From TrEMBL:
Coiled coil: none annotated. InterPro entries: AGP_Transferase, Aminoglycoside_PTrfase, Kinase-like_dom_sf. GO terms for molecular function: transferase activity. It comes from the Bacteria. Residues 37-218 form the Aminoglycoside phosphotransferase domain. Pfam families: APH. This is Aminoglycoside phosphotransferase family protein.
Amino acid sequence: MDEVEVVVAHRERATLRVGDVFLKIDADQARTDVEVEAMARAPIPTPEVLWRKPPALALAALPGTALGRLGEPSPASPAAWGAAGAAARTLHDAPPPPWPGRSLDDVASELDRECAWLVANDVLPADVVHRNRRVAEVALRPWTPVFAHGDLQVTHVFVDGDEVTGVIDWSEAAPGDALFDLATLTLGHGEHLDDVVAGYGADVDLDVIRAWWSWRSLRVVRWLIEHGFDPWPELAVLKAQS
């Protein structure tokens, strides 16, 4: 009999794996609604929905392995990173989903709130927070909304050799900034940024991508701590960015 593997678990959601089936249990069914609808609309490979019975969603495993992990060298080839960039471009060229995405005001407010929390709780030296805030503010500009994955981490992109076999975890999908997806994909893996941009096949503002690196890291540290995760990879990014 296959063993039950706990892939991730915290107060908001849990993901279990049994053989070739992933079982996602989410306290907020609106997130699952988004995930199912986004996968149906996405023009790139996604996991097959096997069944849904709230609060659970069963998905088939994708072939291949994750592109990499934050805080570890990626075993994937430059061509695989380029293929990930090309998949992102295909997604971004599709019509955006009809539900609302994060606004520029939301992004700015989150930056204010999380920087204040990091300083007040002595998580990072104030000068590191302030320097990253200045870097992050470059991302605070109008953008043309695209079909954005919203959480395009390296662990969410699966490859087999040099080919993308699918993308998982679509609960944050919404109209958004294309460069945020590219920044999330390359966070902590800046050595592969050129490969991703080459595969993406369009001019991008690298300063905005680096700004999103700082913004995402500043934003997520508190969540990681409060949900029992070690934020050292994001802290490393913030120290390097400063």
